[in-house]
Amino acid sequence: MKQADFVNIVMPFKDKVFRLAKRLLVSREEAEDATQEILLKLWKNNKKIEDYKNVEAFSMTMTKNFCLDRLKSKQAQNLKIVHSNYTDNNSSLQKQVEAKDSVDWVSKIMEDLPEQQKIIVQLRDIEEYDFAEIAKMLDMNETAIRVNLSRARKTIREKLTSTHGYGIK
Amino acid sequence: MDMVLNNIEELVEKYNNAETTLKEEAQLKAYFLSDDVAPHLEHYKPMFQYFLESKKEQYTKDVPLNTKKTKLYQWISVAAVAVLMLGIFIPNWNSGPKTLADYTPEEQKLYLETKQALALISNNLNQGLHGMNALDMAGDNFNKGMGKANYIAVYSNTTNKLLKN
After folding, report:
1. pTM, whole model, 2 decimals?
2. Closest chain A C-alpha to B80 CA, distance in angstroms
3. Which residue, of A11, A23, A84, B5, has the fewest CB within 10 Å?
4. CB–CB of A154/A113 below 8 Å?
5. Which ranges of chain B have pLDDT less than 50?
6. H, E, C per residue of chain A
7. Contact A130 B22 (CB under 8 A)
8. A72 and chain B: CB distance < 8 Å anywhere?
9. In this complex, do B53 and A146 lie within 8 Å of one another by their Cβ atoms?
10. pLDDT average, residue stretch A45-52
11. Contacts with B64 from chain A: Cβ below 8 Å
């Protein structure tokens, strides 16, 4: 496979890879680094790519695994420093005050979701994949995906309704 | 309007249960991004706005395939090896058999002068050698001393062993 062919294959979904990486790693730089490494890995496997029916789904799976691994090793490093994993009742209000506006506030709410739910909301509500595709990417059944998605959407809604009264716009 | 609102409320309910289709979700997005959202549903607005904004984010860096770079590095290393080889072989090309007659008179004179100076130093060195005998004797005594020093070494070994225990 030539370089140009590869770039043509990757072009339509490289932003989706980046956005999923950013959803999980939060920082833009880390997400860019991750995207670079994932694309490079894909390029190194470009002979195999021709065998895959769905390169995009394969790449999204790879991105998910790559970022979760990275988070795990990061967590292992920070374990000694971060010992407060309990949820602080004031933290959501605190965060909302920090958020520039209510749209920013949604991104903060998303940061607090469990990783699995983050990934599913990202793939469904932002990237608009159908459930069958998401099931393939995450190696989960559709029912489990719907359950997780419903939980995530309800959490977002609850946090938005409970803080809506503070009127940060 | 009420019909639309009823429909939207129903869809929101389905949406929260993750039962909406992509088409229905597109309908919801269009509604919540419009200007006339019912007040009791307004808190959904930022969520759909956020989804839309998030989808606009792009990966702006190059696709890093690096093949050009590695090729360049390969060429640089080939060139470096070539330069090294030249450094080894070139001096040998020039060093054919040469006699004193091949040099200019000035170079010959310089050569002879250097030879004389070196002979002088060598003479003096030989004289100095006689004086070295005294040092030899000192060296013998030193060796005896070394024998005694070995006892100390053995002693320190045993103390180390004791310390380890």
Report:
1. 0.65
2. 28
3. A84
4. no
5. none
6. CCHHHHHHHHHHHHHHHHHHHHHHHCCHHHHHHHHHHHHHHHHHCHHHHCCCCCHHHHHHHHHHHHHHHHHHHHHHHHCCCCCCCCCCCCHHHHHHHHCCCHHHHHHHHHHCCCHHHHHHHHHHHHCCCCHHHHHHHHCCCHHHHHHHHHHHHHHHHHHHHHHHCCCCC
7. yes
8. no
9. no
10. 79
11. 36, 39-40
% of chain A at pLDDT higher than 70: 83
- At the second CATH level, the architecture of A1-82 is Orthogonal Bundle (1.10)
pLDDT for position A139: 96
Give the chain A residue whose CA is nearest to the CA of B26.
A128
A157 near A113, Cβ under 8 Å?
Answer: no
Domain extent listing, chain A: 1-82, 89-169
- Pick the residue from chain B with its C-alpha nearest to A104: B50
Q: Residue B56 gets which letter from DSSP?
A: T
The CATH class of the A89-169 domain is mainly alpha
CB–CB contact B47 A157 (8 Å): yes
